From TrEMBL, chain A:
<protein>
    <recommendedName>
        <fullName>ABC-type dipeptide transporter</fullName>
        <ecNumber>7.4.2.9</ecNumber>
    </recommendedName>
</protein>
<feature type="domain" description="ABC transporter">
    <location>
        <begin position="6"/>
        <end position="254"/>
    </location>
</feature>
<dbReference type="InterPro" id="IPR027417">
    <property type="entry name" value="P-loop_NTPase"/>
</dbReference>
<dbReference type="InterPro" id="IPR013563">
    <property type="entry name" value="Oligopep_ABC_C"/>
</dbReference>
<dbReference type="Pfam" id="PF08352">
    <property type="entry name" value="oligo_HPY"/>
</dbReference>
<keyword id="KW-0472">Membrane</keyword>
<dbReference type="Pfam" id="PF00005">
    <property type="entry name" value="ABC_tran"/>
</dbReference>
<keyword id="KW-1003">Cell membrane</keyword>
<dbReference type="GO" id="GO:0055085">
    <property type="term" value="P:transmembrane transport"/>
</dbReference>
Automatic annotation (TrEMBL), chain B:
<keyword id="KW-0547">Nucleotide-binding</keyword>
<feature type="domain" description="ABC transporter">
    <location>
        <begin position="40"/>
        <end position="280"/>
    </location>
</feature>
<protein>
    <submittedName>
        <fullName>Peptide/nickel transport system ATP-binding protein</fullName>
    </submittedName>
</protein>
<dbReference type="InterPro" id="IPR013563">
    <property type="entry name" value="Oligopep_ABC_C"/>
</dbReference>
<dbReference type="GO" id="GO:0016887">
    <property type="term" value="F:ATP hydrolysis activity"/>
</dbReference>
<keyword id="KW-0813">Transport</keyword>
<dbReference type="GO" id="GO:0055085">
    <property type="term" value="P:transmembrane transport"/>
</dbReference>
<dbReference type="Pfam" id="PF08352">
    <property type="entry name" value="oligo_HPY"/>
</dbReference>
<dbReference type="InterPro" id="IPR003439">
    <property type="entry name" value="ABC_transporter-like_ATP-bd"/>
</dbReference>
Length: 339, 350
């Protein structure tokens, strides 16, 4: 059984005008030491998916259904006290903005010691020694001096290194990183991603990386999920999805990148924009923007408009698309006729 | 490859550039007013002033019809260049010439005709649209300002024409900015820049606040507008993938200085400056299985106390004594670019 197993997760936000469903039927799993990317545009639900793993969804949000099994235990039913043991200790989180994550009135050392002592019965001296060791692991120059510095004295890249050190403090099994480098410059981003990858590999730590950057996902992760309007629409090995995306949205996302077009030519844009979650289109949520609702012969694929697509397996990937299902079906028939 | 280097003033340039920037500097005082600058040191009263050196001697030409992209990381001064060119900031030193005429010293009134010819698109479409104006009002305002003699009818026709050309539905006019998504707002901001028929557009990170699929829409729109209206762009961005697609020429900035300028294809085929090389290697590409970047020592120094010599020497793997001492100037290369690097000039790296 996988270390983390998420099944049919539904997350809703109770608003005055009624519930808005932020996640629908999200399922995925993570093996020990595996690196998973969650990709999507803003509003796709990728951050909600990550936050719900640690039950960090703030009211009015709540987990409305489904299960999250971590190391054989059900997280959605766990008491707050038991959850606190998991948070930070077994699974830790890295957020987007390093300035918002660190406490501005505590020195780096104090924050790290505080975190260690909340989970372990150890002395200040031992805690400081562990903190120093972790700062060395994230390759911060003069780590001992950093312990007594405050967050505002560090640059953005340095702060994100401190946060990675804090995430590693208690030797977690999984690190959840929500857009960890979006606020940073490209050269710093490259350094931080390389560091995160190196540490995860060295300590066999699992990584759930939430990002909108397909380049980062292909560099760092082994498997990926693509999300659209609160659903997973495609998942599988990263290399396979990047090289041969099946879902029209994934194809559109990759083809829209400037590197996929000849310089100066028109980019392959996806028309329209992501629907709002409280007013989703019928059937497949992507159908108003999809070029495959019409078949090649001009007929309309009614299922796209009427039915929510289920997953079909294509290669090692799972895709939620009526068009792909139809194509797979067509491929299967001739194979049987030959027999 | 020292044979690739020729004298800096021999770059063949036939047509006069639309915009010339010469020796541009912009410093921001950190020290507050006169009384705040007074400090006691060793029993004596001294006046101390500290500056952020945002731009330190930038020379750039922009030719008619081209899209010059300025790239660099945060704090390199690229936005300050854009704002100084537009007259939103006054340069501390240097000259800006537009169509042969110096514009950095013009009075507000004398600047007005140039403001019509030069328009700006900002990064954040959530902040750049007035929340209390309808889209119609937003788009009419610049016309009323620059063409006070136009009739309402003519203004409405002009707005309708621009709205149609950027793909804004006619019924958006009665609505307010907050009713639109980021991509739609950026479309409106582009329309607002285009209503006065400008020839030159400064776009400061116009797509970095948008999602990937929307970025493509807005970039396409900017390229269409360039073809239809024969526009010249100064395009500020940190995204090199966008530059490769959009730019005719690229200027790479580091710590307030231009370290390399080259035609886009040349720069991407063969980056010469060590910083450009590091920057390009840091772009995560789809075909990569692992990060493949060139590792740089340390971080960008603060622009308050600039390093001596080449601003990049502290992080450069090729730095020597001369780099620490002497500021490199832009030198033309045979493939049409310019690079400010002692190591390239001396042929230590190629």
């Amino acid at each position: 059984m996988a270390l983390l197993d998420v099944n049919h997760l539904d997350v809703r936000f109770a608003l005055r005008r009624g519930d808005v469903q932020a996640l629908r039927d999200v399922s995925f799993s993570l093996e020990r030491g595996e690196r998973l990317g969650i990709v999507g545009e803003s509003g796709a639900g990728k951050s909600v998916a990550a936050f719900s793993l640690l039950n960090l969804i703030a009211k009015p949000g709540y987990i409305a259904g489904g299960s999250i099994q971590f190391d054989g235990r059900e997280l959605t039913q766990m008491s707050d006290r038991a959850l606190r043991h998991v948070r930070g200790h077994r699974m830790s989180m890295i957020f987007q903005d390093p300035m918002m994550t660190l406490n501005p009135v505590l020195s780096i050392g104090e924050q790290m010691v505080e975190c260690l002592k909340a989970h372990r019965r150890i002395s200040n001296r031992e805690a400081r020694a562990i903190a120093l060791n972790k700062l060395e692991q994230v390759q911060i120059p003069s780590p001992a001096a950093r312990l007594d510095q405050y967050p505002h004295e560090l640059s953005g890249g340095m702060r994100q290194r401190v946060i990675i050190a804090i995430a590693l403090l208690l030797d977690p099994d999984i690190i959840i990183a929500d857009e960890p480098t979006t606020a940073l410059d490209v050269t710093i981003q490259a350094e931080i991603m390389a560091l995160l990858l190196e540490l995860c590999e060295k300590h066999n730590v699992g990584l759930i990386l939430i990002t909108h950057d397909l380049g980062v996902v292909s560099q760092v992760t082994q498997r990926m999920l693509v999300m659209y309007a609160g659903r997973v629409i495609e998942q599988g090995p990263t290399r396979e999805i990047i090289n041969d995306p099946q879902h029209p949205y994934t194809q559109g996302l990759i083809n829209a990148l400037p590197q996929m077009a000849t310089p100066g030519s028109r980019l392959n844009q996806i028309p329209g924009s992501m629907p709002s979650l409280d007013n989703l289109p019928s059937g497949c949520a992507f159908h108003p923007r999809c070029g495959f609702v019409q078949r090649a012969d001009g007929s309309t694929r009614r299922a796209c408009i009427d039915e929510v697509p289920g997953f079909v397996t294509s290669g090692n990937c799972r895709v939620a698309c009526h068009m792909v299902a139809e194509m797979l079906e067509r491929e299967r028939i001739p194979a049987e006729e030959i027999r | 490859m020292s044979s690739t280097v020729q004298a800096p003033d021999q770059a063949p340039e036939t047509a006069a550039p639309l915009l010339e920037i010469r020796g541009l500097e912009k410093h921001f005082s950190l020290s507050g007013d006169f009384l705040e600058q007074l400090k006691f040191k060793r029993g004596r009263l001294v006046r101390e002033q500290q500056y952020v050196h945002a731009i330190n001697g930038v020379d750039l030409d922009i030719q008619r019809g081209e899209a010059l992209c300025v790239v660099g990381e945060s704090g390199c001064g690229k936005s300050t260049v854009a704002r100084t060119v537009m007259g939103l900031l006054h340069p501390s030193a240097g000259e800006i010439r537009y169509d042969g005429q110096r514009i950095d010293e013009l009075s507000h009134k004398a600047m007005m005709p140039y403001r019509r010819r030069m328009q700006m698109i900002f990064q954040n479409p959530y902040a750049s649209l007035n929340p209390r104006m309808t889209i119609q009002q937003t788009l009419e305002e610049p016309i009323r300002l620059h063409h006070p003699d136009w009739s309402s009818q003519r203004i409405k026709e002009q707005v309708a024409e621009v709205m149609a050309s950027v793909g804004i539905a006619a019924d958006w006019g009665a609505r307010y900015g907050h009713e639109f998504s980021g991509g739609q707002r950026q479309r409106i901001a582009i329309a607002r820049a285009l209503v006065v028929d400008p020839e030159f557009i400064v776009a400061d990170e116009p797509i970095s606040a948008l999602d990937v699929s929307i970025q493509a829409q807005v970039l396409n729109l900017l390229m269409e507008a360039q073809q239809q209206r024969n526009l010249t762009y100064l395009f500020i961005t940190h995204d090199l993938a966008v530059v490769e697609h959009f730019g005719t020429r690229v200027a790479v900035m580091y710590l307030g200085r231009v370290c390399e300028v080259a035609p886009t294809a040349t720069l991407f085929a063969r980056p010469r400056h060590p910083y450009t090389q590091a920057l390009m290697s840091a772009i995560p590409r789809l075909e990569d299985d692992r990060p493949q970047h060139i590792r740089l020592e340390g971080e960008v120094p603060t622009p308050v106390n600039l390093p001596s010599g080449c601003v990049f020497h502290g992080r450069c793997p090729h730095a020597n004594e001369r780099c620490r001492r002497e500021i490199p100037v832009l030198i033309a290369t045979i493939d049409g670019g310019q690079v400010a690097c002692h190591a390239v000039e001396e042929g230590r790296i190629d």
